[in-house]
């Protein structure tokens, strides 16, 4: 088997739709998930592209998700958009709430969207880039399952808890970063396991609390946060903002909810958006230029901006009309249709 196969966006979406409907997702959720996975794969996001179809299938098999849930946006007259995902996957809820968040941010200067009662498996950059595409700055956070030990701890209390931020740039790709607050995302450890590769040092401990580079021992033990106590504190902040603040579950509670059944974590998602026109007091153009000066100074020394690799992959894959996907992954995804 050759190492990679070439898939066009249409082939990726088609494969995803077939798998998702086969395992039990209704057409609205299947479409939202398939579009997201295609978008991520076209950016060469390996841990949260087509690979995530396994997690979507496992989530359905676990029996707790509603594959036909219709998210409800609650009416509000303040700057908070609340969307009840009704026990479905988060993506449809995000799509439904997005226009309300954009409108409230333009009205109030700052607004937030709290998505409740959702299963969540996806990368966060598409959420924040949907807002930077509207000329707004945004950040997003979610908990996950309690796989990650706090700094100095020996067992999982925290989630892999990604934090994403996007800043709109006139005529250019936005400044975006999106990463787990664990040293590695869980999906990345799963990919190391599939590839039979050892992890770098400092990513995980085994179930006895000893440092390990064995992906399976890491999955059975606990992951570590990036940046020691600093990443650990950021991760706790994400638990609080995307959990108790918005009346939803922490990673510990999400893990308890799953009762060992596997699949995507179940919790909330918080997205905060800022309107630069209002924050800059009418001096957006001048302030944008100051931000550009900072980016130029970073690039000038040979450093790269976060998401630069991803945008380059997007440009390359879009121009040639396909992305390269591991042949083994493609083979294993087709087997989900059996
Ligand atoms: P990575 O470590 O792969 O990358 C994190 C970010 O850092 C990216 O924006 C990346 O840009 C940037 N970056 C990487 N190297 C450099 C560099 N040398 N200089 C500047 N910037 C750099 O991310 P993770 O593995 O931690 O997370 C992957 C995905 O997993 C994320 O999209 C995240 O949302 C998702 N995730 C989702 C979870 C969930 O519960 N839903 C849980 C955990 C993670 P670039 O892409 O251009 O390389
Ligand atoms: O990669 O850590 C992860 C993850 C958790 C939920 C979805 N992705």
TrEMBL record:
Entry EC no(s): 1.1.1.338
InterPro entries: Mal/L-sulf/L-lact_DH-like_ah, Mal/L-sulf/L-lact_DH-like_NADP, Mal/L-sulfo/L-lacto_DH-like_sf, Malate/L-lactate_DH-like
Species of origin: Ruegeria arenilitoris
The organism's taxonomic lineage, starting at the top: Bacteria, Pseudomonadati, Pseudomonadota, Alphaproteobacteria, Rhodobacterales
Record-given protein name: (2R)-3-sulfolactate dehydrogenase (NADP(+))
UniProt key word Oxidoreductase: yes
PANTHER family, per database record: MALATE DEHYDROGENASE (PTHR11091:SF0), OXIDOREDUCTASE-RELATED (PTHR11091)
UniProt entry keywords in alphabetical sequence: Oxidoreductase
Database matches in SUPFAM superfamilies: L-sulfolactate dehydrogenase-like (SSF89733)
Molecular function via GO: oxidoreductase activity
């Amino acid at each position: 088997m050759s190492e990679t196969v070439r898939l066009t966006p249409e082939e990726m979406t088609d494969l995803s739709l077939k798998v998702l409907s086969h395992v039990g997702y209704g057409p609205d959720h299947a479409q939202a998930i398939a579009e997201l996975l295609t978008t991520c794969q076209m950016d060469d996001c390996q841990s949260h592209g087509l690979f995530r179809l396994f997690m979507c299938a496992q989530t359905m098999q676990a029996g707790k998700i509603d594959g036909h849930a219709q998210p409800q946006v609650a009416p509000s007259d303040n700057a908070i958009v609340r969307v009840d995902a009704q026990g479905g996957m988060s993506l449809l809820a995000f799509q439904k709430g997005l226009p309300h968040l954009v409108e409230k941010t333009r009205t109030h200067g700052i607004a937030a969207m709290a998505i409740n009662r959702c299963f969540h498996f996806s990368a966060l950059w598409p959420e924040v880039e949907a807002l930077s595409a509207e000329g707004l700055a945004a950040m997003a956070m979610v908990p996950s399952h309690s796989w990650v030990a706090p700094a100095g701890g020996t067992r999982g209390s925290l989630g892999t808890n990604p934090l994403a931020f996007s800043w709109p740039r006139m005529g250019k790709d936005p400044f975006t970063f999106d990463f787990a607050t664990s040293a590695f995302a869980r999906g990345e450890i799963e990919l190391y396991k599939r590839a039979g590769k050892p992890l770098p040092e400092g990513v995980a401990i085994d179930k006895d609390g000893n440092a390990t580079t064995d992906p399976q021992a890491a999955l059975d033990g606990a992951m570590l946060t990036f940046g020691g106590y600093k990443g650990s504190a950021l991760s706790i902040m994400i638990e609080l903002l995307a959990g108790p603040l918005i009346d939803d579950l922490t990673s510990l509670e999400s893990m308890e909810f799953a009762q060992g059944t596997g699949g995507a974590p179940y919790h909330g998602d918080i997205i905060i958006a800022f309107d630069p026109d209002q924050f800059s007091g009418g001096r957006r153009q001048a302030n944008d230029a100051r931000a550009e000066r900072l980016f130029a100074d970073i690039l000038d020394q040979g450093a790269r901006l976060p998401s630069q690799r991803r945008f380059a992959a997007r440009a390359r894959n879009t121009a040639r009309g396909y992305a390269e996907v591991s042949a083994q992954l493609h083979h294993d995804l087709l087997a989900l249709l059996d």
